[in-house]
Structures are given as structure tokens and as C-alpha cells.
Specification:
Layout: H1 3-27, H2 36-44, H3 52-85, H4 97-111, E1 115-118, E2 127-130, H5 133-157, H6 162-187, H7 190-201, H8 209-228, H9 230-238, H10 240-245, H11 250-272, H12 277-290, H13 294-318, H14 327-345, H15 347-352
Antiparallel strand pairs: 1-2
Helix pairs in contact: 1-3, 1-13, 3-8, 3-9, 3-11, 3-12, 3-13, 4-5, 4-6, 4-7, 5-6, 5-11, 8-11, 8-13, 12-13, 12-14, 13-14
Length: about 350
């Protein structure tokens, strides 16, 4: 089998797996089991939205599409960052975006009254109501965006080198964690701490249809952008000198890749919380199965990311049914052994960097 045919077969298998898990996510979970016939009948009918079956399918459809979009965003952003930073462990969360977004949520909860606590102020007996969900999303996005611009500003001040970006992201990540810890220590009660902790677990079930379409649009834009930049990203991964001698403006491409991947991830984090492990796992799975060519691996990472988040959400809803595990937890539990297996199986290719 030729290499091109093998890669096309991998793409086809991934598309089939994504579609299969998407259908499974619509059919199973909670107290309702929806057959394929019921699904076709409900989707094709004009029944009232109040019909319980239609409500269930509407919720699951949003979950499935959100999982596909978020996984794609994290996967392709990780591919781009690994190229421009020449670091196989790079991902959007290497920049500390999740900590900055969590800090934004903490500010929304304390300064803007984004949540309301009903009943006794106890983590076990209180009911938490999200009064201003879009304030939470807006401040999470603002925190992640500010973090991204600060990293780029500090790194650009010293030449936008690889080491400057990594050191700036580490420093600002610790600063965000310290600020959030101080906020919790001074102003949070146990209910607010528990609420923030739950948000950081990641949840694809609380988005609106507007959020779903926004995430799908961003996922499409990220895939198109990094595919268009694939040749430049390949050259940069070989070294700045090689890229410059080939006519690539390294600083501009690195700036664009860092900024856009950070902003794409910031939107994702602000809407669904932290699902940080999926991007790293998807990027390594893509490179180890279709190679280190960026054009090929970008599309593969899109599919792998979608598949990972879809599968994690599906498992989180059926393993302990009717209890639903947050997708961020399931992704980590499933992803850690898979990533270790992938790295052990492909360690030679990772070590060689191609």
C-alpha cells in the first residue's frame, strides 16, 4: 500500500469513528435511549420542542457538535504551537491559558456577582445558580486573551525566540495561579471554591446553539488557517535559519500562530472550561499515524481531537450512568495511558523530530 493511500485510509477510518461516536452520543446517556429510527423521525418531524424526546436530542446534539468543535480547535492549535516552538510537548495550555481563564471566572464570581447561592452556604447542601453566564464566559475569555498578549509582548521584547515564549508563559502561568489562589483565600467561601473547581473540569453540556455555531466556525477557521501556513510551519520546525533562508518571515509567522491559537483556545475555554489534555494527545496521534508533514497532520489532528472529546464525553455519560463525569476528567483518565502508549511506540520518530 502506498503512503498516500495509507494516509487516506487513516482519514476515512477517523471520519467513520467520529461519525459513529457522534451517533452513539445522540443515542445513549442519562435515562433516555434513542434508537436510530426515533432519531430520524424526531429530526425530520415538526413536533413541539417541549416533547421530551426532542429536548433530549437537542441537548445531545449540542453536546456532540461542541465536542467535535472543541477537539478540533485544541488539536490543530497544538500542531501549530509544536512547530513554531519546536517542542513536541507544546499545546495551547503550555501558555497557561487555562489558569488565566480560571482567574477570569474567579473575578466574575466575586466582583460581578455572576453566581447566586441558594440555601445554606455549604458545598453539599447549597444550590448554585449561574446568574450571568455570559459574564463568566466574557471574563474567562478576557483573562485568557490578556495572558496571550502579555506572553507575546514579553517574548517580542526579547526577540520572540522559542525560549522567550516558553519562559514568559511559565512565569505568567504561575502568576495567574498565584492571583487565583489569593482570590480564593481572601474572598471565596467553600461553595464558590467548589463551583470554580467544577468549571475547571470542563463541560460540553452547558453551551447554547449560538455557542455551538461559534465554536464550529472557529474550528473551521483554525483548520483552514494552519493548513494555509503549513509550508511555513514545516520550515520553521527545521530551524529559524532554514526558514529565513527559504524566504519565511519567522517572527510574523510565529506571532500569527501563537496569537491565533491562543485566541481560538481562549474562546473554547471560556465556553466549556478546561479540556487541556485533548490537544496534546490529538497532535501526537496525528503525527505518529500520518507523519510530521503539517498539511497532513493538521487535518488528522482535527479528526483525532474531535474523536477524543466525543469519546470522552460519551464514556463520561454511560460508565456511571445516570451520573455524568465532566469531559475534562474523562479526557485525562483515558488520555494519559493512550499518550504514554503512543510516545513509547513512536519515541524514535519523536526523538528525531520528523
Amino acid at each position: 500500500m502506498s503512503n498516500a493511500l495509507r494516509i487516506n485510509v487513516i482519514y476515512l477510518l477517523l471520519l467513520t469513528a467520529v461519525f459513529a461516536f457522534f451517533l452513539a452520543s445522540l443515542s445513549f446517556g442519562g435515562f433516555y435511549k434513542v434508537s436510530l429510527t426515533d432519531l430520524i423521525n424526531v429530526m425530520g418531524s415538526r413536533g413541539m420542542l417541549e416533547d421530551p424526546l426532542r429536548v433530549v436530542i437537542d441537548m445531545r446534539l449540542r453536546r456532540g457538535l461542541t465536542s467535535i468543535a472543541v477537539g478540533a480547535i485544541l488539536g490543530v492549535s497544538s500542531i501549530a504551537l509544536q512547530n513554531v516552538l519546536r517542542n513536541p510537548l507544546a499545546s495551547p495550555f503550555t501558555l497557561g491559558i487555562q489558569h488565566a481563564a480560571a482567574l477570569g471566572v474567579g473575578v466574575a464570581m466575586t466582583a460581578f456577582g455572576a453566581i447566586s447561592i441558594i440555601g445554606p452556604r455549604s458545598a453539599t447542601s447549597s444550590t448554585v445558580v449561574m446568574v450571568n453566564p455570559y459574564v463568566v464566559s466574557a471574563l474567562a475569555f478576557a483573562g485568557a486573551t490578556i495572558q496571550s498578549f502579555l506572553i507575546l509582548f514579553l517574548a517580542y521584547s526579547v526577540g520572540l525566540s522559542i525560549y522567550a515564549v516558553i519562559l514568559a508563559s511559565i512565569a505568567l502561568s504561575f502568576a495567574s495561579q498565584a492571583a487565583l489562589s489569593l482570590l480564593q483565600y481572601l474572598y471565596f467561601n467553600e461553595v464558590q471554591v467548589a463551583t470554580l473547581l467544577f468549571w475547571t473540569f470542563g463541560d460540553v453540556g452547558r453551551v447554547s446553539w449560538f455557542d455551538v455555531w461559534l465554536l464550529l466556525l472557529i474550528a473551521s477557521a483554525a483548520t483552514i488557517l494552519f493548513t494555509a501556513l503549513s509550508m511555513d510551519l514545516d520550515l520553521i520546525s527545521l530551524g529559524d535559519e532554514v526558514a529565513v533562508s527559504s524566504g519565511v518571515n519567522v517572527k510574523v509567522v510565529r506571532f500569527v500562530a501563537l496569537l491565533t491559537s491562543s485566541l481560538f483556545t481562549a474562546v473554547s475555554v471560556s465556553l466549556v472550561g478546561v479540556i487541556g489534555f485533548a490537544g496534546l494527545l490529538a497532535s501526537h496521534a496525528a503525527r505518529l499515524t500520518v507523519g510530521w508533514n503539517t498539511r497532513r497532520s493538521v487535518f488528522a489532528a482535527t479528526l483525532y481531537g474531535s474523536l477524543i472529546v466525543l469519546a470522552a464525553d460519551f464514556l463520561g455519560r454511560v460508565v456511571l450512568n445516570p451520573v455524568t463525569l465532566p469531559v475534562g476528567i474523562t479526557t485525562t483518565l483515558v488520555g494519559v495511558p493512550l499518550l504514554i502508549a503512543l510516545l513509547l511506540g513512536g519515541r524514535r520518530g519523536v526523538a528525531e523530530g520528523r
